[in-house]
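Repro:
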Amino acid sequence: MTRKKIQIKKIENTTARQVTFSKRRRGLFKKALELSTLCGAEIALIVFSATGKLFHYASSSMQQVIETRKNLHSKDLDKMDQPSFEFQIDSSTYTLLSNEIVEKTHGLRQMMGEELQLLNIEELQKLEELLDAGLRRVLKAKDDRFLEEISALKRKGAQLVEDNQRLKQMENQLMIKTHVTEQGQSSVPITNICSSADPPQHQDNDDTSLKLGLSFPY
């Protein structure tokens, strides 16, 4: 039979709760012993029951484990008080990036015609040259884009002319086929008329032979 899964919640029955506490506590201490023996780990467990009774387990000595933890905690606090080298590098990098952002933002505003009051003649002239160079690049990019669009329109026009010529050729071929078909259909009635005119001629010949036979007795 499979073991029934117990819902994890506080057991209301006092007796059942005490029995479960005893079983689980022994199991917890057993697992701690196995972990300490197999892995060489320093383990200290302190358990208080619902009635306030103390239970504890230590792999070596409870006091020794606690002192080791206290020493490690003190070292961690000392490290937190002194910023690490990586943190110092991150702080300096953040400062440099912040200054660069401020400088770039200020330069962008000046290029837009703002915050020019503190600039001298030389700085204004450099800014003008920078704007002229940027304007030339913008105009060149615009001209290149116009040329690309014109070339694309020319290619599209040439393709349309080619498609038009192909359609005209197909139309001419279709007209030639239609004309040949119509001529073939018009020649059929003439042949039928000629073939239908032959039997009366044979009938006249037969009548003539009969008439000659009647005029000459045996």
